[in-house]
Amino acid sequence: MKNHQYFISLLRYILIPGLLLVSQSVTAQQDAYINYQGILKLASGEPSADGDYDFTFSFWSSATGTANSDKLLKIGATDPNVPANQWSETITLSVAGGVFSHNLGTVTPMNPKNFTGPVYLNIRVGSKDLVPRTEFSYSPYSFFVYNTRTVVCSGAVGDVKYSILPPDKFKEANGDCWVPLDGRTLSSSDVLRQTYGITTLPNAGGQFIRTQDFTAVAGTEYWKPKNSSNLDPERDSSTPVGTLQNGSLTTHTHTIATAGNHRHSYDRRGASTANNGNTGDNTVSSNDNGTTGQVTTSTSGAHGHNINSAGSETRPVNTNFWIYIRINN
Questions:
Q1: What is the pTM of this model?
Q2: Is residue 218 part of a domain?
Q3: Which of 217, 277, 289, 328 is most enclosed, with most CB atoms within 10 A?
Q4: Per residue in 264-313, pLDDT tens?
């Protein structure tokens, strides 16, 4: 490929594309592309020489920022600090008379989530970045497409919701401003952290949820507690929300009946027994030949019986659901 050192002085004329314009591929599958056309010029105003050039396209959230947090991500990626997660594509394009054309998204599928805010396209030719970056603008029909395909987030920031839907399906139905209540650390850009100072979410996986204890507060504010509950003996209204409480059993006793020193007798021939008035013994009266057939078992003196419990936890009857929290607008 050609390596032109004078790219530092390149000027350009860009035909700004409309956001979300769709080009149908030749296969049965339809992929979303953004067609991009431009002209490379030298500092003198002349078109660059004809030939093949290596272009790298990338998406950014700001016009000039260079931090990882300014880079927009691929589909499914969450960490901008991992270079492989950042959306970009490199391709060799033929330039004739300075003109080039490319369908963005043909190498790396575009992430629809990137287009919920401003998007700036950075173009690198060889090892040189063309400046300034180009901000995408809407085409008239893309407003309709955006409104019909974008899920408006349900609820409000800080809401907690149970659902039968797993995370990917829940996101489709409720928007991407919700995340599992799984103990994750929030990013500095998340509203729940930025506005309310909550840096780490509780991990509610596999747990029962208990409401915060109330302490009545004097005053006329309608949104403050008016009555005390005091039903959480080991926590109170000042305990931070999301605090884990380990399992416990309240103090209690088990009563097991005992007969003291005793023994058990039975008639091996099925004769009936009758008490002879002597402590601890029964005399068996014969119902056939008059002989006795008493058998007396041995005794262990006063004793108790162990009660064994089964299972790995103490719990009420329950049904499990997924749980999520809204962290962004």
A1: 0.45
A2: no
A3: 328
A4: 665 555 444 444 444 444 444 444 444 555 555 555 566 666 666 667 78
